Amino acid sequence: MLRLLKLELQKLWLNKTSRILILVSFILPFTVLVLSSIKINFFGLFTLELGELGIFNFPMIWHVTTFFAAQFKFFFAIVVVSMIGNEYSNKTLKQNLIDGLSKKEFILSKFYTIVFFSLCATVLITLVSFVIGLIYSSYTEPSIIIREIEFLLAYFVKLVGFFSLCLFFGMLLKRSAFALAFLFIQFLIEWLIFWFFNSKVGNEVAWKIHNFMPLQSMWNLVDQPIQRIAMTKYPDSNDIAYDYAVHWYEIAIVLGWSALFIFLSYQLLKKRDL
């Protein structure tokens, strides 16, 4: 495993574009630190300081920061599809196979890289969240700090699932631009399926089906925290209440999709004439 991971990391680091995108994808989560210290002056009438609104309190901070950080996953998604596009355009895939790397090892090297970067991103956002929480949270008891830490697991699984999908599209289309475009097409397809079932069997069943779709199931892992923030300010407003918790079956669905995408990527490579 370490040999395959080292081989892939070396390829990425020697590529200038990939190196820049990787650095950007790791630096951007630190903007949460910047946001936490922002003070917005509204024409001298009052000053809004995000850190004083309570959104960085434990345990809510795990939800807020993982949701915010997940929006930057597209930068490393470019790296993932480029890993495949460059292999085909530079003929390194064929050369690696000639040099003794099996097709299974080739796919595993990509998967190990996905897991490695997802783990690094999770560790990074954990440290950033912990520091911000210690600075701004009104609650610093250990039992409260570790509450809802499952959002970090959900964030990690979400990244692995999304990058596995990108890997599959990269293998399917061989071109980075086409693979990224297919992410948007996938998004449209999922909503078309939703509207089809919505018109046939009703809204409730349509949503249940929609929640099993790849992109939607990944989104469900870390729901938007805006309503939750509003709930803390207006606790009696039942109309804005919603289920924001991380559920085991949501993680299972995304892990299932991840395994399927890796398997399909391997099958494509096995059957493809290089």
UniProtKB/TrEMBL annotation:
Keyword Transmembrane: yes
Keyword Membrane in record: yes
Domain of life: Bacteria
Pfam families, per the entry: ABC2_membrane_2
Keyword terms of this UniProt record: Membrane, Transmembrane, Transmembrane helix
Segments passing through the bilayer: 20-40, 60-84, 111-139, 151-170, 177-197, 246-269
Matching PANTHER family: INTEGRAL MEMBRANE PROTEIN-RELATED (PTHR37305), MEMBRANE PROTEIN (PTHR37305:SF1)
Name assigned to this protein: ABC transporter permease subunit
Protein species of origin: Winogradskyella aquimaris
